[in-house]
Automatic annotation (TrEMBL):
Lineage: Bacteria, Bacillati, Actinomycetota, Actinomycetes, Kitasatosporales
InterPro entries recorded: Amidase, Amidase_CS, Amidase_dom, AS_sf
Species this chain originates from: Streptomyces longisporoflavus
Occurrences of domain Amidase (ranges): 24-441
One Pfam family, short name: Amidase
PANTHER family: AMIDASE AMID-RELATED, TRANSAMIDASE
Protein name listed in UniProt: Amidase
Record region (Disordered): 230-249
Length: 472
């Protein structure tokens, strides 16, 4: 195994044991970028020189016994909405082509303090306003969409171009590309992670979170990012510890009887249900739940996001409209047609939905469901036809199962649970109570450990190492 293939936890252990240096790890990842980036286009900017300097600095600090923790010397990418001092923050848009960040965002500063090595900025769907990231190609099949809007971050992690990365999630923009590329993505509780220095799409729906190779890795990154933010409306506290392995006896898993399994590809449903059965085998109790106010979810999501995005872009939309891509410009112009009354009704509906979800999550510890209704579609495909004859836009399909966690602000984790007949990854989503990332991560990690054990046992019985892991 090459260093660029290591999980964050494995790389951190190797660095701490002196078996791998931050310079060796960073050089391996930069070499991987050089070999695959032309095909994948995950990065807007690669800062190789500064990354190597940071790796050397980390190596010297660790050698002097000044370790800053598990992220010290680990190479990572930042979605190009997130400011890092001295680097462009373009939002993958011509509108911001000449913008260079004067200072670090709060999350970039936290990762720098933890000793992480910044490789560069990853592509987003323009201003995060889309679910495909059209300039970036899926890590598993280059003819398919990467998912969005954090497509560059997901592809970089999946392809070995970063050991971990940060993305943003407004309607699924961490979880969708993570699921489509076969990696882990965590959208934390709303307000838990600072958004200071992060370009906004919709300020009441935006979240920042990690994309990683394993659930344990996501917990390690979250621990470095977690903390109070006085600039946010909410001021939560409490660090999120890395999940412990073990059984799930006594834990209650909610299985939706509506919404999350409607208009879902049969292979996606089968993989998600098998994963849920695995949670039951680990000791969890499965409880059917009714998703409240399901008929209003998409209307509330768009009713909040569209006018807030338009308000943010009001000045540049009027001064330089031609610099926006056509799909984004149309959405921004549509936002001008949303009345104040409609926006306030969406906010009121969100409050009712939050209350209803709180009641539902009082009965269970997590909700388990598919992350997205279908695997990655071919680039350029605009719509999907479901078995009932319904035709749905690809973007509407991908946002449909992710939006509730953004509206309600609950933590949501996606992790790989299988592949379809063409080998494309399938993800399962775990959603929990606000500020209870620990339980969500515990459940995801328990599944991850169980599957890894089954794969290892199967390989041992077969006497060969060529069996593909179910959740790889």
């Amino acid at each position: 195994m090459q260093p660029y293939e290591l999980s964050l936890a494995d790389a951190a252990r190797a660095v701490a044991a002196g078996e791998l240096s931050p310079v060796e790890l960073t050089d391996s990842v930069l070499g991987r970028i050089e070999s695959v980036e032309a095909r994948l286009q995950a990065y807007v900017t690669v800062a190789a020189e500064s990354a190597r300097k940071a790796a050397v600095r980390a190596e010297h600090e660790i050698a002097r016994g000044q370790s800053r923790g598990p992220l010290h010397g680990i190479p990572m990418g930042l979605k190009d909405l997130i400011d890092a001092a001295g680097l462009p923050t373009t939002a993958s848009s011509r509108v911001r082509a000449d913008h260079v960040a004067e200072g670090d965002s709060a999350v970039a500063a936290r990762l720098s303090a933890a000793g992480a090595v910044l490789l560069g900025k990853t592509h987003t769907h323009e201003f995060a306003y889309g679910l495909t990231t059209p300039q970036t190609h899926n890590a598993r099949d280059h003819s398919r969409v990467a998912g969005g809007s954090s497509g560059g971050s997901a592809v970089a992690v999946a392809a070995g171009e970063a050991t971990f990365a940060l993305g943003t999630d407004t309607g699924g923009s961490i979880r969708v590309p993570a699921a489509l590329n076969g990696v882990v993505g965590l959208k934390p509780t709303y307000g838990l992670i600072s958004r200071q220095g992060v370009t906004s799409l919709s300020w009441s729906l935006d979240h920042v979170g990690p994309l990683t190779r394993t659930v344990r890795d996501a917990a390690l990154v979250l621990a470095a990012l977690d903390g109070r933010d006085r600039r946010d409306r909410r001021e939560p506290g409490g660090a999120s510890a890395a999940p412990e392995s073990g059984d799930l006896t006594g834990l209650r898993v909610g299985v939706p009887r509506n919404y999350y399994f409607e208009r879902v590809n049969p292979e996606v449903e089968a993989s998600a249900r098998r994963a849920i059965e695995q949670l039951q085998e680990l000791g969890a109790e499965l409880i059917e739940v009714e998703i409240p106010m399901a008929r209003y979810i998409q209307a509330v999501q768009w009713g909040l996001m569209v006018p807030e995005a338009t308000a943010y872009h009001e000045g540049t939309l009027r001064s330089t409209p031609d610099l926006y891509a056509a799909d984004v410009r149309i959405l921004l112009e549509a936002g001008e047609l949303v009345s104040a009354g409609d926006y306030l009704r969406a906010q009121r509906a969100r409050t009712l939905m939050r209350d209803a979800w709180a009641q539902m999550l009082g009965r269970v510890d997590v909700i388990a469901a598919p992350s997205v209704p279908m695997t990655a579609v071919k680039s350029g495909q605009d719509s999907v036809r479901w078995a009932d004859g319904t035709v749905e836009a690809v973007s509407d399909s991908y946002v449909r199962l992710s939006a509730p966690a953004n509206i309600t602000g609950v933590p949501a984790l996606t992790l790989p649970v299988g592949r379809d007949h063409e080998g494309m990854p399938i993800g399962m989503q775990l959603m929990g109570r606000p500020m209870d990332e620990a339980t969500v991560l515990r459940v995801g990690h328990a599944y991850e450990v169980a599957v890894a054990y089954e794969v290892a046992a199967a390989r041992s019985e077969a006497g060969a190492g060529e069996l593909a892991p179910v959740a790889s």
